[in-house]
Amino acid sequence: MAQPADTPPHDSLDTLCARGGWAADFTTRPSAPPLYMTTAFDMHGLEQLEAVAAGTETGYIYTRDGNPNHEAFAADIAKLEGAEAGVACASGMGAMTAVLMTLLKSGDHVVSARVLYGRTSQLLNHLASAFGVHVTYVDGNHPDAFREALTPQTKLCIIESISNPLMEVADLPAIAKAVGHVPVLVDSTFATPCLLRPIEHGATYVFHSASKYLNGHGDVMLGVLVGPKEAIRRAKAMSSLFGVNTNPFEAWLGSRGLRTLPLRMERVSQTAAHIALFLQSHKAIERVYYPGLETHPTHAIARRLLTKGYGGMLGFDLRGGRPAVAALFRAMAEIIPFSPTLADARSTVSYPTGTSHKFITAAARAEFGIKDGLVRLSVGLECPEDLQRELAAALSGLS
Ligand SMILES: Cc1ncc(COP(=O)(O)O)c(C=O)c1O
User: How high is the pLDDT of residue 365?
Assistant: First the structure.
């Protein structure tokens, strides 16, 4: 744009706009962590670039490689889990991609529990068919099955601490012992470090879909992986290379959510225990899956490992299968919505057969015990009596 003759070039409207947004003092420490919403970081010069890249000076270069908000979130999870380091990724699946790309190459072998979040199994199956990674699925309830499946090429064992959707609690100490030196990766999304710290029980890596409890408000896509420092350094490099890094705002929201995590986990554990008992006695329901119930197949393990509460997730089989599920979801739509996620502040229900586990065959679902009438309930922060009343009203319409 042409400048009027008396306006110095640096005062031009174009230049002011392009360089705007800065106050004289951006150094006063804010009470809440600042959000580093930036693509890159200005360098003082080539020496700084080289020093930061070499790791001899702390700092950041490019947000895909690292950003203070990513670091703050991941470092907090590492501390909470008792791990050396952590990396924040774009989603739980992003963190899973980062760890698998870090630890596996073609020809390597993975032993995995057969009941996993469906997309995790789908990713493993993809690595098997497209990249020649070998995967053996075993019954996660039998630690010896992990040992029996090991081969000299086994680089990793994978299990969920509380499985999705049957809420089976893994006997982590027994699995870690059974597989010896092979690293165990635990998806601890349902437990969170408030209820269980897998590394204390022999796990090497802990992974979370932080889109769930760690954030806790149903408004974020975020994942995190923690583990040994050197492996996490490589996972960060993989996260950047594959572009599965998160963005600063999601990490910032994750950090904000963390501040109330212990309170939320305590509350949902209490409410879910209350609701599980209520559902167990209801005639429209065939079976309830909650690790805190004595009737749950892994209750003894849960009592040993989940000493602070059994979590906010439960499943139940409705008599009447899929049509009954459809009717229940219609009846509850305005109050306990069908939402294919979990760990929101409000309670939600999901249908594993049609969402998280639709990627495995019907035969496999039947074998694993995932029935057509299975509903997954994510218990939220509502008043327990309100929830019970609402569930009772919706269920009464079925029988
Ligand atoms: C147990 C578990 N692990 C992993 C994931 C994947 O996480 P994300 O959706 O953040 O990619 C999910 C998502 O629902 C999950 O429930």
Answer: 86
Pocket test for ligand 1, best of 115, 211, 217, 341 (most atoms within 8 A of CB): 211
Q: Is the distance from CB of 239 to CB of 67 less than 8 angstroms?
A: no
Domain count across the chain: 2
- CB of 247 sitting under 6 A from ligand 1: no
Q: Is the CB of 189 under 6 A from ligand 1?
A: yes
Cβ neighbourhood burial of 321 (10 Å; 0-12, 13-18, 19+): middle
Predicted confidence at residue 5, as pLDDT, reads 53
Ligand 1 pocket check for 211: Cβ under 6 Å: yes
Closest-CA residue to 191 (of 305, 293, 98):
305
CATH assignment at residue 226: 3.40.640.10
| Residue 3 alpha carbon to ligand 1 centre in Å | 55
Domain span at residue 220 reads 46-258
**255 CB within 6 A, ligand 1:** no
Whether the CB of 187 sits within 6 Å of ligand 1 = yes
**Residue 160 Cα: closest atom of ligand 1:** 1
Q: Are residues 249 and 266 in the same domain?
A: no
Same domain membership, residue 351 and residue 227: no
| Domain limit, last residue, from 258, 289, 313 | 258
Average confidence (pLDDT) per 10 residues, the chain, 399 residues: 53 87 84 96 95 94 97 98 98 98 98 92 96 97 98 98 95 98 98 98 98 98 98 98 97 98 98 98 97 98 98 97 96 94 97 83 86 96 97 90
Residues facing residue 110 across a β-bridge: 135, 156
Q: CB 133: neighbour CB atoms within 10 A?
A: 22
Q: Is the CB of 250 under 6 A from ligand 1?
A: no
**Does 7 fall in a domain?**
no
Q: Using a 6 Å cutoff on CB, does residue 204 contact ligand 1?
A: no
Residue with the two structure tokens 């309170």: 263
Final residue of a structural domain among 203, 224, 258: 258
Confidence at residue 186, expressed as pLDDT on a 0 to 100 scale: 98
Tell me, yes or no, whether 330 lies in a domain.
yes
Q: Are 161 and 150 in contact (CB under 8 A)?
A: no
- Are 272 and 194 in the same domain? no
Centre of ligand 1 to C-alpha 134, Å, is 22
224 shares its domain with 267:
no
Tell me what pLDDT residue 1 has.
44
**pLDDT at position 15:** 86
Q: Can you give the pLDDT at residue 357?
A: 80
